[in-house]
Write a structure and sequence with these properties.
Residues 198-658 form the Arabinofuranosyltransferase central domain. Among the domains are: 44-192, arabinofuranosyltransferase like domain (Jelly Rolls, Sandwich); 200-226 and 246-261 and 295-616 and 624-660, no CATH class; 744-784 and 795-946, Jelly Rolls (Sandwich). 39% of the residues lie in helices and 16% in strands. The protein contains 30 helices and 38 strands. Strands 1, 3, 8, 9, 10, 12, 13 and 38 form an 8-stranded antiparallel sheet that branches.
Amino acid sequence: MIGQVALTKKISSPIARVVMIIFGLVGVFCAVAVPLLPVNQTQTRLVWPIAGKSEEIIAPLVSYSPTRIVVSVSRAALDVVQSAGGTVVATVPESSTSADAYGLVVRVTARSGSLPIAAVVLRNQMVMSIPVADVPVGSDITISSDPTMTTVSASNRRITLKGDHRPQLVGIFSDLRGPAPPGLYVDAKLDSRFTTRPTVAKTFAAFAAALATLIAVTTLRRAEARRTKKAVFRPQRSVRRHFRLSDAVVVISLLFWYLVGATTQDDGYYLIIAREAMHAGYPANYYRFWSAPETPFGALYYDLIGWLAGLTPSVPVIRLPGLACGIACWLLVSRKVIPRLGAVAGSSRTAYWTAAAVFLSFWLPYDNGVRPEPPVAVGVLLTWCLVEQAIATRRLHPFAVGLATAGLTVATATSGIICIPILLCGIREIVHIFRSQARVLGWSACLAPSAAAAAVALAVAFAETTFAVVPAVEAAHRVAGPDVSWFGELQRYQRLLDGADPSGSLALRFPVLMILFTLIMAAIAIYRPTKYVGLAIYPSRRIVLATFSAIVELMFLPTKWTHHFGALAGLASSVAVVAIIAIGSRVSAHPSRTVTAVAGALAFILALTFAGPNSWYYVSNYGIPWSASPVSVGGIKLSNVMLAASISMLAILVWLHIHVEVSRRPAQEQRFKQSRCWPRGMSMLGITATAMVAFEMASFTTAAVARYPAFSVARSNFDALAGKPCALADDVMVEPDVNQGMLQPRSSDALTALGAGGVEGFTPTGVPVGTVSAYTSPPYRTTASTVVDASSSMDVTRWTTDGNGRRGTNDSNIALPFGLDPATTPVLGSYNTNVVGVKSLVSGWYRLPVLDTMDKDEGIISLAVAGIIDPQRGSIVKLELGAASASTVTLVGEVVPADVGMAPSWRNLRVPLKLLPSNTNVARIRAIVSSQDPNLWLALTPPRVPRLRSLNETIGDQPVLLDWVVAAQFPCQRPFGHRGGVAELPRYRILPGQIEANWSNLWQGHFGGGPLGWAELLFKGAVIPSYLRNDWDCDWGQIQRLVPLKPEAQPAQLKESTVRRSGLWSPGPLPVTFPDDTPDPFKRS
């Protein structure tokens, strides 16, 4: 199949050779120079006091610590606070409880009967303690800290700490007010190393590298065209250009999935990076790694996504590149790869249909999102095609273009490194081509364009940044993790087969198991001495070797996520073609045994596949059948059925091997193309893959239809196409003021109605200490044994029984959740370790408002509760419904409210109004705790009918901390920005459901350099009740109002200057580690 090319005479024009050499060398030189050339950096400084006033300022650093900070505290400043004591200077507000652990604090402690003491505390170290009287008048306490050392000096004392002890800085806070005492100042040089713009020289070098490479490769192509004849092998026009039915099916399937199918886990992650790149000046890693970029990866891809998000950030628009890549990848498979694999492959409908089914089974679950695997999959396959074209035509310029393609693919994402072994798979033939061409053109003319093509990716990756960024980025990833060695690759497959979360779902398992099976079948076939008629053996070997090498190359990625498999989609469908031809040949020689063996292997693959749940990420999982458990029908698990079928096939195979006589004729004499068994053996792979694709499409179609008009991915996408792009923000209904919807009692007083029907064992103080609002948790700095509660890692105000709440209406001192007013809202709880027996509560009747049909359809009854509701253990909450006349109430039914949230935290039970009988106009609460278990308790507040607004209306364009899991579903919300190393202050935080919130908290936390690492030092979270319209019992997530710990502090006014920095300049190490931080699980996996 390899084309034979006849060299004619020596090249006649020496000018072409000179052009190739000169422009090739210029391209190499310019491309290598780009990372080293200088940039214009925006250097930011924070200086305090401002305008001579000691007012507090806020400046949360995304890098946590400045590159250098100098603090001077004069004796005059110490004198101001020495009588009562207080904080003179702090880089973290002391009310956050973490000022000493992470920050720098200079405070004066006043003790009765002793001299006031000035103390300098730096990251939990008492660096210096000195009586104020020992600091001479006119003298200062001076602190200087940089990456190499920290010094503290006062009077005649000087203490030096070697190493990096820089404090975290989120602002400057002080108990001083009014004019600043003389000699008091803070000067911090902030870490804005990534906020750069290219210099003219750098831009010129980047363009020169691209242009010189283009000229050199184009000249090489023209030189080869003048001196060579056409290759003998050319695929037939019908093979190369005919639009097949399989092409239409693939394109239609991709379009269908684009509108109806699942998104990927990291859509929001990459969307926010791209959206904020314009504001920040570089594509910062928004949620981790101290906002370092991903250099040298992702530059062009982030620019593309950012440009699309600038047009509109709606989900369908930002996923257009993935759709385009899917179509392009399939066209490469059908137009270039399959014809290259041989005459049988190029003319077989079964081969095309099987390739299409395997391709879709891979692409749909892995590549339908904003992650970079789709362009990597295209780049990988295009690189292989270009190498094959070079081999087939005996020309160098396709290989040079392949080098450039591989380099740009690597620059797109880390998974692009799988292009490297693909280039090497045909290295023997490529070396022969180099040798033959060098005899005519010379080695310099051959190597220079190729070297320029290989290096041009450097000009793209470092067009706006420098090489010095790479060590900082690498260090940030190494410290925060994940950073798993190559021998930890087993973790990727453990996740795939675990099933504990969607990374091990059946849709993700099947394509990986299929590629492993087809790879084994193809490898056995093409490396056996038997020839397979119609199979181009050498291209087939190279595609198999390329796929195997790509899977091995994934070992060297430091992260072991299953979504990296998405880069193999094109290779998987190509290897499947080789496998089915090999299977077809074996069927011809040994029909019964081969068909049985293949059927048994596929049954085993399906058994492993369906042992996992049909789960998907976040909103894609809404309404999906079998999303929480393996597929089963009538209590029988499909995985068990498939396993039984596989074992049966194995038994039949053994019987056939023993009893059936096998034809001894050589395989090449079987004329397998005429065998009736051959299509059957080939099509089993295609039928299995098609069934999986159909199952996935049916799952999402069913979910969209069953949930309508509630939110679904499909409905959201169609809404976006109709001009409503805000996705989940239009369906999440928020209760801004919980006191407005409080129901009024029918007859009794509002203050006593909660227990008017009878109370036994419920008291106004019956709530245990430490009960908080749902999704809130203790301070994020946990020990290794702590179970992190889902959601916010903010240090939220405790709703406890220790007297920290205002005295309520029924003499309760419980601090109520969600902003409930204790002056008008009673609370009763059953928690009391000294009381035994059944505890019960029956409230009085509460009037329901008169609502029209629309309000009933979109309204609920809600009541705030805490504790554990478990009827099987004897803890019950019901809402009894009545029809009230002038004097009596008739019971018309009862309903069990949906319990959404994490027990025993405060949360909102909810009952949709449309479920109530039409004559219902009153309701009351009935609660029973019959268990003697002290951990089984309940606390309740009166019911209410919330007055709801959409989240979009509530937040508007205020800055929001969007957790990465939810970010793509709230495209109309404005994520907080950062510039010059300082973050904008968000007003709200939006979290996913309680399971995904664990991931968000850990990934975005302090240890990994995420935004929660500074947000938890500045805010406390106030949970706002919220619900998903038309799916009221869905745990969609949570919205929190971020309440500043220092509301009087103002955003800092930074000083900016532009400084030219060389390509090797670095202000010091980026990740500043804090000994008190406990590594999160992502560090280890």
